[in-house]
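dumping this here so i dont lose it
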């Protein structure tokens, strides 16, 4: 599937995006180019699609060199960017609470593509009561008897909330379709009705943003091996993750079918190139901020009040059970 880079040409209400985000463009976040129902896959589309598939196996440095993209982002540059972006996210939080805005962001993509890292970064400096992460487990027997979208609809944001969906109703078009957890007719029905449901969500005043994270075959393999060897990350591996590594092209076909059916001008898919985790986080968050029409909320100047006087209070001679200094305890045990 051919994909094109998009550039925001208009600023959201309430302030210029370029002023807020310093006019920085991030070509690694791309808009999927939707086809109309009457269009067909021509030779150039097929060549572009095949070229994209072949490119998935190249090392990120080779991709950067061939495409003229910058190399891996350095830690110093990343920290500087994230300090600025975290400040903007706090503005979004205050604006959402003040205006009652309702936003839902869907994170889908390849396994080990970095979705969780972006979500963690988004919530690092924000309130969990505003930026609410939803990562639903496998459906219960009761939920299996419900309408498929029902358990996701229950998670839609109320006023003043930004819901971050770590995987979403698109499981039906992805893992369920590939692994045979549902019938082909159920997948077809989902893909046919999904744009209508999303139109209803948007019509109810909810801003819906959809991201797909794409990683190369080689980088995905490296990350899986890292998870296997690192006891801190082994919990991230599941049988479904291992199958996704084996069934790369089955998932590619499922992704292409999903894009074809659900990438609409009303509810588009945005693709994040995530071979470089740091750059992917900066690009995705910057792009998300460009889509939200937030602005600074007027606030009273904060003044720290003086402490009250002790008025005779004296600390009691109580034997507190203090938590020991771990480093000192370790050094003492080594002697």
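and the seq i came up w/
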């Amino acid at each position: 599937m051919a994909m094109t880079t998009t550039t925001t040409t208009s600023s959201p209400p309430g302030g210029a995006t370029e002023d807020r985000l310093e006019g920085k463009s991030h070509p690694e976040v791309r808009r999927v180019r939707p086809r109309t129902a009457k269009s067909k896959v021509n030779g150039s589309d097929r060549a572009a699609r095949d070229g994209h598939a072949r490119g998935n196996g190249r090392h990120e440095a080779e991709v950067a060199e061939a495409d003229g993209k910058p190399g891996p982002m350095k830690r110093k540059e990343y920290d500087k960017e994230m300090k600025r972006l975290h400040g903007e996210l706090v503005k979004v939080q205050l604006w959402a609470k003040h205006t009652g805005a309702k936003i839902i962001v869907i994170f889908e993509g390849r396994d080990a593509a970095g979705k969780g890292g972006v979500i963690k970064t988004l919530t690092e400096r924000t309130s969990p009561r505003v930026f609410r992460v939803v990562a639903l487990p496998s459906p219960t027997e009761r939920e299996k008897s419900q309408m498929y979208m029902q358990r996701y609809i229950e998670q839609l944001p109320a006023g003043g909330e930004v819901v971050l969906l770590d995987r979403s109703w698109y499981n039906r078009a992805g893992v369920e379709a590939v692994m045979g957890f549902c019938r082909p007719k159920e997948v077809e029905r989902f893909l046919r009705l999904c744009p209508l449901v999303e139109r209803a969500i948007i019509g109810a005043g909810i801003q819906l943003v959809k991201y797909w994270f794409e990683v190369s075959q080689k980088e995905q393999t490296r990350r899986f091996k890292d998870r296997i060897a690192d006891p801190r990350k082994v919990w991230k591996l599941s049988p479904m993750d291992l199958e996704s590594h084996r069934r790369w092209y089955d998932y590619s076909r499922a992704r292409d079918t999903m894009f074809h059916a659900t990438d609409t001008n009303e509810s588009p898919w945005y693709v994040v190139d995530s071979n470089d985790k740091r750059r992917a986080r900066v690009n995705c968050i910057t792009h998300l901020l460009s889509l939200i029409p937030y602005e600074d909320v007027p606030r009273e100047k904060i003044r720290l009040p003086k402490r009250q006087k002790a008025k005779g209070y004296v600390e009691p001679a109580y034997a507190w059970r203090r938590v020991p200094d771990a480093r000192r305890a370790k050094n003492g045990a080594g002697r």
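The chain has one domain: 3-36+47-291.
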